[in-house]
Amino acid sequence: MGFILAASGSAIGLGNIVFFSANAYRFGGGAFYLPYFIALFLVGIPVMILEFALGHSTRRAFPQSMYLAAGSKGEFLGWWAIFNASFITMYYITILAWVVGMFFGALGNLWKPTVPVPWFEGDLPNPAAFFFGLISSWKTIACVLFVWSVNAWVVRRGARSIEAAVRVFVPLMWVFMLVLLVRGVTLDHGGQGVLFLFTPNVEVMKHPDVWQGAFSQIFFSLSLGFGILTAYASYLPRKSDQVNNAILTSTLNCGFEYIAGVAVFAILFAFAMVPQASTLGMMFFIVPQGISQLPGGSVGVIGFGLMFFLLLFLAGLSSSVSLVEALVSAIVDKFKTSRRKAIIGFSIIGALGSLCFSLPIVIDRGLQGDGTLGFTLLDLFDHWAFSHGLLVVVLLECILVGWVFGIRRLEDHIHATSKFRLGPVYPWLIKVVIPALITALLVFSVRDEFRNGLYGGKLIPEDGAGWLSILPIFAVLFWIGASVVAAAVFTLKGRYEEAGNGK
Ligand code: TRP
User: Fold this and answer.
1) pLDDT category, 501, cuts 50, 70, 90?
2) Domain membership of residue 125 as a residue range
3) Is residue 219 part of a domain?
């Protein structure tokens, strides 16, 4: 029970509540659910079974379990996955810091007609104005430090303290989400949003980016390719059933995701608001603008606003702690340092990273693109670590476990404890189908990178900010350089002692 709460707490996060709705809108609403479900059954659940079984059979965090499966190559991939995920965690926590700022805004200022943004010429409606005011102020520093401290506090005792936290967070998240759902669908015209989410459209499915979107959404949403699920499963008792765990975790996650999608679309359609393809726009001003129009006077608006941001915060926190745990347990496994030291060290480095993503320096006064330097960096690193990194990790993980370790050995372990038989397709999925699909997606997207310029050629310098144009190349070099060097150092330094580590 504690494990399912923790695994689903890791899976259910900002990705489920707003990224999903934004992606579903961007890729044509109803058109999205077919690629999404295909991705879930073809890739999501099989890879989740693999990650759980790996942790459960080796009883180690991701790098060491990959080491036991495939030697140093495997270990290198294990560390690389965690460092790639650390980039994601850093900016994810910056986004959570903004959520904290918006929560305080929801007590009053967020709903005022217009709060002028000093550097923006012209009018911006609230809550957008409040949001841009917030991210271009230094207040975000305090919020970043706050979120990292809460993270460190939750993981302080590892599985025990995480379990205690998710026992409160996860049920509360479900309650908040169901309240939003009921509120959404009982509004006049709320039902149209639901229709939008379920009307199929075959045309859209011909575009490869819809498929890349669906795959990335499934990986991110299910926490695959982070090395997290393996670390969590390493704490399970010998007898637990990994197929069952994977099916339960992904059903809870995707159920939550669809409920959130219905609630968000119902609220937006009820007030004839256009959803946005930008995930952050959706979270920070489109949905709040819908909330600001809910009936029930200011008490209703403030109540629902506070609830929405608290929901985002709890969901995000139970995801980000899972990566801190994945990294810390990996370090403790290999270097036998104390947990405390590992947590403090990572939190300091992580907080510095998150602060870079919250740099409030305004670089685009017209808000044509993103508003601040931190925001732009966030978008750039998200483009690599999230849209490409997770795919690369899952690709290599399937190849190493499928071919080098031998999928049969993993299957034997799974079948020893599981009621379900995986059947003859499973090895082919892991060895051939999933790697082939991911390779195809990566080829398409790298081809786009060359055709349209890095990062879609979006950062064309305007008036004097010529240095901006080197950011895309800087981002990709830094991302690859830092994660590869760190992974190599951690792989080469020291070696595993085979003695048990008390788990
Ligand atoms: N699954 C989470 C979501 O849907 C994302 C996530 C998983 C995550 N693990 C993480 C984010 C670790 C940051 C750090 O939002």
Assistant:
1) very low
2) 2-492
3) yes
Instruction: Report yes or no: 342 and 331 within 8 Å, Cβ to Cβ.
Output: yes
State which amino acid sits at residue 58. Answer: T
For 352-366, what is each residue's pLDDT tens digit?
A: 999 999 988 877 666
> In this structure, is residue 503 part of a structural domain?
no
Mutate to test the pocket of ligand 1, among 10, 148, 324 (most ligand atoms within 8 A of CB): 10
Q: Can you read off the two tokens belonging to residue 458? A: 């979006």
Give the residue among 379, 359, 460 at the shortest CA–CA distance from 87. Answer: 379
Give CA angle at 384 (380, 389), nearest 5°: 155
Residue 339, Cβ density class (10 Å: 0-12 exposed, 13-18 middle, ≥19 buried)? middle
Residue of 18, 19, 88 with the most ligand 1 atoms within 8 Å of its CB, for mutation: 88
Task: Give 427-449 pLDDT, tens digit per residue.
Answer: 999 999 999 999 998 998 888 88
159-185 and 297-335 helices, crossing angle to 10° = 150
Domain with residue 420: its CATH number is 1.20.1740.10
Q: Is residue 502 part of a domain?
A: no
276 domain residue, yes or no: yes
Write down the pLDDT at residue 499. 45
Total domains present in the chain: 1
CA distance linking residue 16 with residue 229, whole number of Å: 17
pLDDT in tens, 483-497: 999 999 999 998 887
Residue 28 burial (CB count, 10 A): 19
Pairwise CA distance, residues 306 & 304, whole Å: 6
The helix (run of H) or strand (run of E) holding residue 217 is helix 208-221
